[in-house]
Design brief:
Layout: H1 23-37, H2 39-57, E1 62-74, H3 82-86, E2 92-101, E3 106-113, H4 121-134, E4 140-146, H5 155-161, H6 164-167, E5 172-178, H7 186-203, H8 211-221, E6 225-228, E7 253-258, E8 261-265
Parallel strand pairs: 1-4, 3-6, 4-5
Antiparallel strand pairs: 1-2, 2-3, 5-7, 7-8
Helix pairs in contact: 1-2
The structure holds zinc ion (ZN).
Length: 284
């Protein structure tokens, strides 16, 4: 650039250069950017999308079980004496709700227990037994739950998911976790229905006194498959020295197709489901 006093000065100018890529490369680049700068939003979107893909490709050999721990339920008495209503003597039950999706059916489920441990160990055996009986063709289990809370994404659960299902003859287990704070959905609705029905029964003069009795009552009155879980189901007997996986909070998918062996990764992928794939760098 030439100035009025005759001097020449160098300036830089930004210009656009036209470049041509395929749409796929552009999408992949955008995906990468989004992943780097906005991990949380990316994970929410990605997990929803992955589960949608899974639902579309499910066959008669697959089942998707969306589960969620629902808060405790107070035992109810049609006419409560004051000491029960206000005192510490009021019994509580724990509810574990879920929805079982097969290629032909959607089945709401709820387990009830007097044990308040909230561990999924309790719900797993009775539900898997029921699935095997109802749908003998099913060999691949897909679970969906919220993650960063304590009960699902811990070493005990990893051990359980890589052992118990194989005792029932399932061939693969694939557990996906929704992003923090975005795991609510159908199981929550099941919990609300169960609690409302328990309230309705109590208001019509039926005492709710324990898990087994509630289960029998609701199996007769609701379109929800109820499971009573006795205390003994909650004990996880393992002589294995379980190691905590580093970076557990980041894990969004755990896969197992042989006893005691798991692989895991930051986000879910079902491109080769029910087989595992190498997308998103799985770790063993
Ligand atoms: Zn994949």
């Amino acid at each position: 650039m030439k100035l009025s006093n005759g001097e020449t000065k160098l300036t830089s100018m930004t210009v656009k250069i036209k470049d041509t890529f395929s749409l796929n490369i552009l999408c992949a680049e955008f995906d990468k950017e989004l992943r780097n700068c906005c991990q949380h939003v990316y994970n929410i979107e990605h997990q929803y999308k992955a589960i949608r893909v899974l639902k579309e490709k499910m066959t008669k050999h697959d089942v998707l079980i969306h589960i969620d721990f629902s808060e405790n339920l107070m035992c109810k008495y049609a006419s409560e004496v004051q000491s029960v209503h206000f005192g510490a003597s009021q019994r509580q039950l724990s509810l574990h709700t879920g929805v079982v999706y097969t290629v032909s059916q959607t089945l709401p489920i709820c387990s009830v227990s007097d044990n308040l441990a909230h561990s999924p160990t309790g719900i797993l055996r009775p539900v898997l037994r029921d699935i095997k009986e109802r749908y003998p063709d099913i060999v691949n289990l897909f679970f969906l739950s919220d993650g960063p809370t304590t009960q699902y994404k811990i070493k005990d659960n990893f051990f359980m998911m890589s052992s118990i299902p194989f005792e029932f003859g399932f061939a693969s287990v694939n557990w996906s976790y929704t992003e923090a704070g975005h795991g609510k959905g159908a199981p929550d609705g099941v919990g609300a229905v169960v609690k409302r029905e328990a309230d309705r029964l109590a208001s019509h003069g039926t005492d709710i006194t324990g898990a087994q009795q509630l289960c029998t009552l609701l199996n007769d009155n609701l379109n929800v498959q109820m499971f009573y879980i006795p205390d003994k189901e909650f004990s996880l007997s393992t002589s294995h020295n379980l190691q905590t996986i580093k970076g557990t909070m980041k894990i969004h998918q755990v896969f197992s197709n042989s006893k005691y062996v798991i692989s895991y990764r930051d986000v879910s992928c079902f491109c080769k489901a029910p087989m595992s794939c190498n997308c998103f760098t799985p770790m063993v």
